[in-house]
DNA sequence: GCAATTGATGTAATAACATTACATTTCAAA
DNA sequence: TTTGAAATGTAATGTTATTACATCAATTGC
């Protein structure tokens, strides 16, 4: 047991895309990723989008909706709330100055939004929480 | 007193764009709005984007980041938390079947995210909360 | 072994969303 | 009445994402 929850062996393209994202300090757009991978034979956006779709499905990559960009999941195997990836809603704090992204969970927030949904009969499929602003360093 | 908090008289284009959004059941993209306003002399996307920028600034329109689309603010003058627009973070529940959007506040969520930010020294400027899923009717 | 199916890939073209740059107009305040 | 700020008009371009279709590779069932 304790095998990766939802990360089957990655294909070549998925590995390339994940590695680029994982090594990046900042979120990257699909086209920026494409440019980084031209040397590895990537020629078209679809190659990137397809890999991103799968990686997102596996929970290894997150899409930042307010940026139209992507980040590698910051949670390593088996974090706080259950084994590995596949946890509840993830929230992001995005620094508009240095582009650093902090990823976090908040059970209370999850729970509260869940309660709201339940009270309205709304069935959530995906929840986005993104805080834009200035990180401690940049705000100083 | 009790004058609108942040809604100076709208210009012609702002009024046209707001009216289209306000009458719509569903969120609209900038280009959809443009098409609706061709009869009124709109020719270019920028006319729409400029109006949307101002309306968003006034708090009369919200951008749905996960849809790249816009909705008129559902809160009428002087809602629960302070006078009119200009309240805290607004959250959205977006039905992926019928496109209906529910707008709501949750002080507890606001507060919780605010506390997280404070604990990290992060200074929020704008917070996005969007729940995608199925509304009660469509989930049935 | 070998068709049949399924998932991944390659490529081109196009669609959808958004901004830059620059010229012109409007209108209220000095 | 000038003048300065905001709004507008228009064209061109930049950025993000998808559709369509052909090919390739691995697995499965026979």
UniProtKB/TrEMBL annotation, chains A, B:
Give the UniProt entry's GO cellular component terms. cytosol
Instruction: Could you list this entry's UniProt keywords, alphabetically sorted.
Output: DNA-binding, Metal-binding, Repressor, Transcription, Transcription regulation, Zinc
A GO biological process of this protein is: negative regulation of DNA-templated transcription
Superkingdom of origin: Bacteria
Q: Coiled coil where?
A: none
The residue range of the signal peptide is none
What cofactor requirement does the entry state?
Answer: Zn(2+)
Where on this chain does Zn(2+) bind? Answer: 95, 98, 135, 138
This entry's Gene Ontology molecular function terms read: DNA-binding transcription factor activity; transcription cis-regulatory region binding; zinc ion binding
The protein in question is named Fur family zinc uptake transcriptional regulator
Taxonomy, top ranks, is: Bacteria, Pseudomonadati, Pseudomonadota, Alphaproteobacteria, Hyphomicrobiales
């Amino acid at each position: 047991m304790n095998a990766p929850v939802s990360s089957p062996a990655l294909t070549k393209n998925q590995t390339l895309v994940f590695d680029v994202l994982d090594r990046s300090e900042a979120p990257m757009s699909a086209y920026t990723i494409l440019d980084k991978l031209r040397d590895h034979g990537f020629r078209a956006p679809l190659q990137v989008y397809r890999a991103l779709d799968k990686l997102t499905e596996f929970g290894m990559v997150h899409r930042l909706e307010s940026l139209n960009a992507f980040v590698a999941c910051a949670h390593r195997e088996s974090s706080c709330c259950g084994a590995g990836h596949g946890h509840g809603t993830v929230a992001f704090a995005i620094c508009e100055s240095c582009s650093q992204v902090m990823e976090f969970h908040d059970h209370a927030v999850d729970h509260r939004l869940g309660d709201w949904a339940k009270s309205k009969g709304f069935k959530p499929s995906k929840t986005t929480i993104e805080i834009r602003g200035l990180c401690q360093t940049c705000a100083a």
